[in-house]
UniProtKB/TrEMBL annotation:
Organism classification: Bacteria, Pseudomonadati, Pseudomonadota, Alphaproteobacteria, Rhodobacterales
Organism: Alloyangia mangrovi
SUPFAM superfamilies: Oxidoreductase molybdopterin-binding domain
Keywords: Signal
Protein name: Oxidoreductase
Entries under InterPro entries matching the protein: OxRdtase_Mopterin-bd_sf (IPR036374)
Secretion signal span: 1-23
Amino acid sequence: MLGLPSLRTLIALALLVAPVAAAAAKDLPKPEEQPLLVVSGAISNTNLDGTASFDFDMLEGLDTVTFTTKTIWTDGEQTFTGVQLSDLMELVGATGNEIKATAINDYAVNIPREDWVDGGPIVAFLNHGEKMPVRNKGPLWIVYPFDQRPEYQTEQIYSRAIWQLDRIIVLD
């Protein structure tokens, strides 16, 4: 049979693709507490009613990043810990080109895929090692490392740093 791949080629391809598919389909446990963050929309990895829902312990259990930066809303340097937005979007299998991030009070901002990069914004859940209460912009805040990259010191980027975050919709 001319033009058909050999069995050996098919097996080799399957061995190459299997780890990628397994990583993309990583099972998300269900939250044990009230979810702090619900991700929906164009995602492929869900755990609760077609969404990817995360409680505090789930977020804290992911790979985290800590950085220190000044913000235009706080006094002095702040040390934030959270999950990189890029890692979170990869974990939920986001296929869209933009997210709509919404706060507890329904304030919403759109964040384009080009911001979902290593070393970019995080979904912060700790400030100075402590949980952030709602009155202090918590419990979740999308924070950019403003001091580390001058291109993050613009009105457009500042407008994307949404606090009291509780839901994200991945848009096509």
